[in-house]
Amino acid sequence: MSNDDTLISKLISETYTDNADKESPSAVSDLRNYFEKKLNEVDFLSINDYLAQHNLSMSNVVFQTATQCYRLEVKDSTLDFPSNWSIFKEIKSEDLVFVDQSLDQDFLLDIFSELNGSFFNLALVKDNAEVKLIYLPEEVSKDHIHWFRGFFEKKNQMGALDDILKEAA
Helix, strand or coil for residue 74? Predict the structure, then answer.
């Protein structure tokens, strides 16, 4: 028997012996806890916790119903961005919008570098009803975007699980 066959046999054995008894949910009501536990094994922090852990700065962006603009207050400046312009039109249908130098057709990076005094890539993140503009250092921005995408994928999986459990109840 080759090493690959031994490894596969061991994995199958572990899967069908004691782990199945310990980890399988016992009732429908336990399914959410079971899957939450499984998802939490893969670093499922909140966005605010993640930002604090990685010392990332951000600004809240508030939707103004009267003007249909997203309002951003940075330092002593107030900026309104029309909701049908640039990345702000995309945040209606997306949880995450990323802007780096290659995607910045509207010169947002230049605008924000003037306001902040340094150059950052940007991520616009919609978490529940809140929209945040997150400033990402250029050299590690792809790593952060990867985490955000994983976060929203897991969050959407949990939302789908909630829907299934509501139907089963």
Answer: strand
Q: For residue range 51-68, list pLDDT tens digits in order.
A: 988 999 999 999 999 999
Q: Are 130 and 142 in contact (CB under 8 A)?
A: no
CB atoms within 10 A of CB 83: 16
What CA–CA distance (Å, rounded) separates 67 from 81?
10
End-to-end CA distance of the chain: 48
Q: Which residues contact 150 (CB under 8 A, 6 or more apart)?
A: 42
* Closest C-alpha among 117, 122, 137, 104 to residue 77: 117
Distances (CA, A) of 165 to 30, 36, 98, 130, 135: 10, 13, 33, 26, 37
Which pTM does this prediction carry? Answer: 0.66
- Of 65, 60, 64, 108, nearest to 85 by C-alpha is 108
Q: Is 59 left (phi over 0), alpha (psi -120 to 50) or beta?
A: beta
- In the chain, domain spans: 57-136
| Helix locations, the chain, DSSP H | 3-16, 18-23, 31-40, 47-53, 86-90, 108-116, 141-168
